[in-house]
Structure formats: C-alpha cells, structure tokens
Design goal:
Layout (H helix, E strand, L loop, with lengths): L2 E9 L5 E8 L4 E5 L6 H16 L7 H11 L6 H22 L3 H4 L8 E9 L2 H14 L3 E6 L21 E2 L4 E4 L1 H19 L4 E5 L6 H11 L6 E3 L9 H8 L4 E3 L10 H5 L5 E2 L8 H13 L4 E2 L9 H13 L6 E2 L5 H6 L5 E3 L2 E3 L12 H4 L7 E2 L2 E4 L4 E2 L2
Parallel strand pairs: 4-5, 4-13, 5-8, 7-17, 8-9, 9-10, 10-11, 11-12
Antiparallel strand pairs: 1-2, 2-3, 4-15, 6-16, 14-15, 17-18
The structure holds magnesium ion.
Magnesium ion binds next to loops.
C-alpha cells in the first residue's frame, strides 16, 4: 500500500478543528486530528508545506519509521506545532492500518485491558451552590467522576466557569478577552466548595479540580493540604509545568494526588515529573504529543513509576481525538481516567462517530480504525474563524498565567 495524497481540512462548527486526511492507492484513507487551540493555522501550514510532501509514496504501515522520519528529520524537534502535526499524521496512519486489517485501533495497541473507559465530566457555576447543582446534574447523567470549578467572590470571571447558561468554552472568536485574577481570593474559596461537595455527594463520587497553572508550588502545597479531608481524585495543573522540579515542593507537603501535562508535547517534557514520582497522572494528549506512537511510549515509561494516564479531552480537540483517546484508554494497562466534554451538536454532525457514553464509562466502538469520520460537505459550511484563549492578569495589571 502507498500513500497517494493527503489534505488538511479546517472547519469551525462552533469552534476550529484541523483534520488531516491521508489517502492510499487501495482506496483506504485515515483521519487525524491536528487541532492546536488558538494556533490552528500554524499546524495547518506545517502539515501542508512540510509534512505532506514527505508522505507521498510511503508505505502507511511503516508507522514507526514515518514517525522517526518526521521527528528526527526536522532537526528542530518538539514544540506544540511540530508535535501536533506529527500527531495528526500518526493518528491517520493508525486509522488506515485498522481499516486495512479490519480491526478497531485498540486491537493494534494490545487489545482491551478493561470493559470501558472511565471519564470525568465538567461541572461549574457562578458560586458554590450553582456548582453543587451542576455536579448533581452530571451525577444524574451517570458520571462517576466530576471536575468542579466555582466562580470566586470578588472576581468577575475565572477559568472553568461558563458565562450565561452555555457550556464552558474558553476559546473566543476575535482577539483575546482579558480577566482579572487573585490567588488569595481563590485559595480562600476552593476548600469550601469541596467541603460542601463531600457533604452533599458522599465519598463514592470522584471529585477533581483544575488550578490551571495559577499557583506557586508552596501555594499549591497549601491547597493540596487543605483539600486532603475531601479526598480529591486529583488537583490538576497546580503550577506551570515548564519547571518540572516545581512539583517536588508540592509533593513534600500533601497527599492530594497531582495531575499535569495537557500542555506538554514529548516524553522529555515530563521525564523528571514521572521518574521522580512527583505526579500521579500524566495528561498529555494523542494530538499534542505525537500520536499513538509517542504517547504509548510515555504511558509505558509512566507505568514503571506508578503514574497513570488522565488525558486532556476538552472540546478543543476534535471528535477524532476523542475516539482515538478511547481506543488508547481501553488498551493500555496504566490508564487512569479520561476527560470528557461533550461536543456541540454542530460538531458531532460534522464528525459522525462510533463512540458512546453509558453509566460513567465511554466506549470507542468496534468499527475498524478509529471509528470517526468527517462530513466534508457539512464541514465546508463552517469556515475557519480566528479565535484565541483568554488572557489573565493579576488585580494590579501584571500579565499572569491563563
Ligand atoms: Mg486542564
């Protein structure tokens, strides 16, 4: 089998998605997600100008060799743009191989290690009572794990909390919006949210929380300690992860489990975090971390150090990523949990898929390959629109981490 052509589709059914389609001389094609939220066209250009020309004529079954060719062959390695472009190619090749062998991708990864993929939902509200109501709604839908984020008294808006009655969606069309932040107000508020949640829902439900990179290590240590009585599943991204050693300080002070990695791209970004056992869950995604070929290596390395996966799965990734993540989560041994935000009806219509949710778990389906398609005619009705993630400043105007 030979790759004959490849093309990139950028569509915006509510938000932007970048899709790579690789076609072969046997009529089989594969799809890969290359969406990099807020920087979509950089990946599009990388694919069109630099990777696609190198793919034509290659055997799509030689996935490892193609991966190494694109990674090592660039000389300028790593980074979110490069790794998302390679991730899209890799996903599409696994899709082709599954279709050619007439088997779902999870079988290519070693087969099922479990019956279903435990997922966590998002719940948020303008204050604690509204957040508790939102958690209750997710439990009613069947979720066994829920991430809770609450508005903070004295702050007009914050990460994770929706505006109006819409689902939470940070990417906005046009230039970046700006919000103001106070770590002091945040740290005073969060323990109360989880005290209330445990009172209301008992110990059986898994509760999670995302700090979204906004604390220093010692602030995160304080939060982790104060949350210990409420037995969280994890706190996510307590500090920015460029400095892997920052997690050592947090770890010395608290037994609240830690998760990070959604903004990381390679095993080299996380090797100290994992080897030193400073985290419990690694959150890198198939799309941003070079596809199945690289994320499988990261997961296997993590398994040696008691670290499990907890892959990012917000709506900033397309349904192709979601489907791929479910094959991955079903197959690998050290799976922990998978994030799940349902896509909009518009997005689901553009990307028909086999995966499903039932009673807290998701299932990738048994279609060959990834089990996700793209309706290119419908996609064409939603042209790309520039969008950005918001900017965050401290109360005195200092630019801070979003
Ligand atoms: Mg996150």
């Amino acid at each position: 089998m030979k790759i004959t052509t490849a093309s990139v589709n950028v569509c915006s059914p509510g938000r932007n998605f970048t899709t790579l389609k690789i076609e072969t001389d046997e009529g089989i094609y594969g799809l890969g997600d290359g969406t990099l939220n807020g920087r979509e066209l950089a990946v599009v250009s990388y694919l069109r100008e630099h990777l696609i020309p190198c793919l034509i004529g290659r055997d799509p079954f030689q996935i490892e060799d193609i991966w190494q060719y694109l990674y090592r062959g660039a000389y300028w390695r790593r980074g979110p743009v490069t790794m998302s472009a390679i991730g899209a190619v890799d996903m599409a090749l696994w899709d082709i191989k599954g279709k050619a062998l007439n088997t779902p991708a999870y079988n290519l990864l070693g087969g099922k290690s479990r019956n279903g993929v435990l997922v966590y939902a998002h719940a948020n509200g303008a204050d604690i009572e509204q957040t508790i109501d939102a958690v209750a709604r997710q439990i009613d839908l069947g979720y066994l794990a829920v991430r809770a984020q609450s508005g903070i008294p004295g702050l007009a808006s914050t990460y994770g909390v929706a505006k109006g009655n819409k689902p939470y969606e940070p990417a906005e069309r046009g230039l970046p919006s700006e919000s103001l932040w106070s770590t002091e107000k945040y740290l005073r508020h969060v323990p109360e949210l989880f005290e209330r949640a445990r009172q209301q829902f008992g110990e059986d439900i898994h509760l999670l929380h995302d700090c979204h990179h906004r604390l220093t290590p010692i602030e995160a240590a304080r939060l982790g300690k104060e949350l210990e009585p409420y037995h969280l599943f994890w706190i996510e991204d307590p500090v920015p992860a460029e400095l892997q050693e920052g997690f050592r300080v947090i770890r010395q002070h608290t037994t609240t489990p830690l998760a990070t990695g959604e903004a990381l791209n390679t095993i080299w970004d996380a090797q100290e975090l994992i080897r030193e056992q400073w985290i419990d869950y690694i959150r890198m995604t198939l799309v941003h971390a070079g596809g199945f070929t690289h994320l499988k290596k990261i997961a296997d390395f993590a398994a040696l150090f008691h670290v499990r996966t907890g892959c990012h799965g917000a709506t900033d990734l397309s349904p192709i990523s979601m489907g791929a993540a479910l094959h991955f989560g079903l197959a690998i041994h050290n799976f922990g949990i998978q994030e799940h935000m349902p896509h909009s009806a518009e997005t689901d219509a553009v990307f028909p898929h086999q995966y499903s949710f039932d009673a807290g778990y998701m299932y990738p389906g048994d279609a060959p390959g990834l089990g996700v398609e793209i309706d290119e005619t419908l996609a064409a009705k939603y042209p790309y629109q520039r969008a950005y993630l918001p900017i965050n400043r401290k109360m005195d105007g200092t630019l801070f981490d979003w």
